């Protein structure tokens, strides 16, 4: 370069991932250097890999390593036993508003549900119901950030990024654990 500086090519971020089977189907857990950045649920491992690569297009996704299989086991254990308290480092990537919503979701007790307007009220933003739903849909960390516990005001289960069947199964498991 004319000014004597060298162009620095940024290193690609590495995301270590593992895929396993849970009571609600396949689970992918992805972890960056900062913590868990993805927990995806789906019917096929291939579908989950496509989601990971789409969500993190510049990252190098590495199968295994860095204890990711242990993290995957802990996430699957949470699906088996939703009351299990596991402290994870999370790499939350979203707007400040989305992060506020996700924090509010973490406060919903196991086995309970709330509606989108309840979250909007909690955040002192009653007009933000659709934005709350969008933030739930943008949540990359299923199960750990329990967006599956948010339902419509009429009690209907709808709008889950990983499929309504998965949402129903997670809620059913939670209720059974409390019975």
TrEMBL record:
It catalyses: a 6-O-methyl-2'-deoxyguanosine in DNA + L-cysteinyl-[protein] = S-methyl-L-cysteinyl-[protein] + a 2'-deoxyguanosine in DNA; a 4-O-methyl-thymidine in DNA + L-cysteinyl-[protein] = a thymidine in DNA + S-methyl-L-cysteinyl-[protein]. SUPFAM superfamilies: Methylated DNA-protein cysteine methyltransferase domain, Methylated DNA-protein cysteine methyltransferase, C-terminal domain. Pfam families: DNA_binding_1. Belongs to the MGMT family. Its EC number is 2.1.1.63. It comes from Methylophaga nitratireducenticrescens. GO terms for biological process: DNA repair; methylation. This is methylated-DNA--[protein]-cysteine S-methyltransferase. It is an enzyme of class 2 (transferase). Keywords: DNA damage, DNA repair, Methyltransferase, Transferase. One of its GO terms (molecular function) is methylated-DNA-[protein]-cysteine S-methyltransferase activity. Residues 96-175 form the Methylated-DNA-[protein]-cysteine S-methyltransferase DNA binding domain.
